[in-house]
Design brief:
The chain is about 10% helix and about 45% strand. By secondary structure, the protein is mostly beta strands.
């Protein structure tokens, strides 16, 4: 079991959006037998199409993510670099809807986080000492694959995510879960539950559905990692499709 001790701070849904919603840029890595993944995000509340995220896979440990409106207008980009670490990759993310920018640079000694809330805000920077078991953004996919057998055997895993908006880490428990009723038949599902009781009062656990044979992420239900034009992070149901 992975455990890291941290100082607890109040956590808000926005924070969860950054460290969990962002996780789903990690659905693909360079060794997979596909080079494009499209995630279609629907509103949990209304069922309306909110945006799409298109992942293009590179051969050098990097992949690009493009966020687009329902009409196809591109409003955001992310670049993930797994060349140094798959569980704690470096990444940059830009949301043109509100000017939010995130940059995380990881190495074996520290994780440097730069965060700008919007185009008018100052950039905040933090240097976080690296500890084994820390997860950055897309690294959750590598974590799930590494500990798949343990999770499938109902072991609960305590993990620490880097939270760019707070320049700190936050604890979550990962465990096997029942799938949502309309999830693909035979899928293996996991829940991510915040350790903080404050967050647990504000949002439901994040639910992930994987194909047990390919270990590809099929579905994510939880708060989006990218804001709408009003700066709000909606609860979304994202369906993923893989292309060669």
């Amino acid at each position: 079991m992975i455990k890291q001790s941290i100082t607890r701070k109040p956590v808000l849904p926005l924070l969860v959006a950054f460290i969990l919603g962002a996780t789903f840029s990690q659905i693909a890595s360079a060794e997979e037998s596909f080079n494009k993944v499209v995630g279609t995000a629907y509103s949990v509340k209304t069922g309306a199409l909110l945006y799409r995220e298109t992942h293009t896979i590179g051969a050098n440990g990097k992949h690009d993510v493009e966020y687009s409106e329902p009409d196809g207008l591109v409003f955001g980009h992310k670049v993930i670099d797994e060349s140094q670490s798959k569980i704690a990759p470096s990444f940059t993310q830009v949301n043109e809807r509100n000017g939010e920018r995130i940059e995380v640079n990881s190495n074996s000694k520290n994780i440097i986080v730069h965060y700008q809330k919007n185009k008018d805000a100052k950039v905040k920077t933090a240097d976080i000492p690296y500890k084994p078991g820390m997860i950055v953004d897309a690294g959750f996919n590598a974590f799930v694959k590494e500990y798949w057998q343990s999770l499938e055997n109902d072991t609960k895993m305590d993990v620490q995510f880097i939270a760019p908006s707070r320049q700190s880490t936050v604890g979550f428990t990962v465990s096997r879960s029942l799938c949502k009723p309309d999830t693909q038949k035979g899928a293996e599902c996991f829940a991510l539950t915040p350790d903080s009781w404050v967050v647990r009062m504000l949002i439901d656990p994040i639910l992930l559905a994987y194909d047990p044979e390919t270990k590809r992420l099929l579905r994510f239900t939880g708060r989006a990692n990218i804001a709408d034009k009003n700066g709000d992070y909606k609860a979304v149901d994202i369906q993923y499709h893989y292309f060669k």
